[in-house]
Amino acid sequence: MTTSKPARRPRSIDRRRQLIDAATVLFAERGYPHVSVADIARRAGVSAPTLYRHFTDKQALLLAAVQSRVDELESSTERAGLSDSPHPADALATSVTELSISNPHATSLWRWSGQHLSDEENADVVRRTRTVLRQWAGAIRADRPDLTERESMYLAGAVLSVVGSGAGRAIRSTTTGDVHAPLLELVRRTIALSPALAQPPHEGVGLTDDSPTRRDEILDAASGLFTEQGFAGTGMDEIGAAVGITGPSVYKHFPSKIAILVGISRRSATRLEAGVLAAYAMTPDPVGRLTALVDHYVDAVTATPDLLVGFTSAYVLAEEPQAAELLAVQRRYVARWIQLLAEIDPDRTPEAAALSVHAALAIVNDAVRLPRSTPRPEFAARMAYLMKGVMGV
C-alpha cells in the first residue's frame, strides 16, 4: 500500500510569505520611511534581485503586508465559529486574544499604514476590516440583545484597539501566559460595556489663546494639513497659503517644516502636562484624578488634530534632537496613568496596569483616525466611557 506525500508549497509562495513577514516586522519596528528594500531583503535572508522577482517595490510590499494582516483577521474570525457558538461573545474574546498574542501585527499594522497607501488601497482595507468588525458586533449583540447595532460597533472597534494596543508586545519581561490572562480580561470587560450609559465628560483645561499670534496660526494650519495630506505631502507654500502669507514668509517664524512639526508636538505636550496639573489640583482621590485625565485627554484629542499629527508623524522626528525630550514627556504622562491605576487597584500587577492604560489610550487614538466617527455628538462621551470602562474605573 502506498501513501501519498503531502503536497509541497511552491517555493515562490514560501519566499513571498518570508518577505512579507520580514517587511511587516521592520515596518513596525522602524516605521515605513526608515526601511529600505535592502533592509527587508537582508532580514529575509535573500538578495535584493530575489526580492524584486516577487515585489516591484517597497510600496507593493507594504500593501501585501497590510492585506496579509487583514487576511489573518478574516481567517481568525472564521475559525472562531461565532455564528455556531453557544456563547459568541466569549468565543470572540478568546479568538482575538489568541490572535493578538500569536500575531500582534494582524491587529495593529493598519494603524499607521494608511498614510502610505493610495486612496483606493485604503478603501479596500477599510471595507474588509469593517466587514470583520460587523461580524464581531453581531457576536457581541447575540449575547446582548439590548445593544443597538451602532453600540455594538463601538464595542467591536474598541476590542480591535484593545488587542492591537501593543502593550502586550511592550511587556518583554513577561511570558505569553502572563499577558494572555489580563488581555483576555480586558477584552471581556470591553464587550460587557454599555455605550448608551456614557455621560458627557468633564470640560478639559482651556488652553485657547484669545489673541493667537501668526506663529499659532501657522501651527494650526500645518496641523490640519498634516492630518489631511500627511507630513511628506504638505509643502511650506500650502501652509503659508492656509494663513494668507507666502511660503517664504513662513520661514520668518519657523526655519523648516520639521520645526513646525516640533512646534505642534511641543504644544501637544504642554496641553497634556496642563491636564495632569489640573487633575492633581482638583482632588487627592486617585479615581477622581484618573477620571479627570481621561476626560481631558478625550477633549484634547478631539478638539485639535495636534495629537493625531503626533501619532502619524512620529517617525519624522525619530532622528531629530528633540525626539528624546518629546518621548520623555509622553512616557511621564502614561506613567502617571499607570501609577494612578495601581493606587486604585493595588492587587493589579504593574504589567496588568500598563496593559490596561495602553488599551484605554488606543481606543480613542484609533477612533480619531476614522474621521467619520468624530463628528457624531456622542463620540467624546462614548470614548471617555469606554476608556474608563476598559481600565475598570
- Annotation field: number of helices: 19
Give the overall form: globular
Termini distance? 66 Å
- Topology, number of strands: 0
What's the helical proportion of residues?
Answer: 55-70%
Pattern of helices and strands: HHHHHHHHHHHHHHHHHHH
Supply database-style keywords.
393 residues, mainly alpha, 69% helix, 0% strand
Protein architecture, described:
- This protein is mainly α.
- The protein contains 19 helices and no strands.
- Helix 7 packs across helix 8.
- About 1% of the residues have low confidence.
Summarize the structure.
The protein is mostly helical and 393 residues long. It has helices at residues 11-30, 37-44, 48-52, 58-79, 88-102, 110-113, 119-143, 149-163, 167-170, 176-191, 214-229, 236-242, 247-250, 257-282, 286-303, 306-317, 323-344, 350-367, 379-391. Helix 1 packs across helix 4 (58-79).
What secondary-structure arrangement, pairings included, does this model have?
Elements lengths: L10 H20 L6 H8 L3 H5 L5 H22 L8 H15 L7 H4 L5 H25 L5 H15 L3 H4 L5 H16 L22 H16 L6 H7 L4 H4 L6 H26 L3 H18 L2 H12 L5 H22 L5 H18 L11 H13 L2
Helix pairs in contact: 1-2, 1-4, 4-5, 4-7, 5-7, 5-10, 7-8, 8-10, 8-18, 10-18, 10-19, 11-12, 11-14, 11-16, 14-15, 14-16, 14-17, 15-17, 15-19, 17-18, 18-19
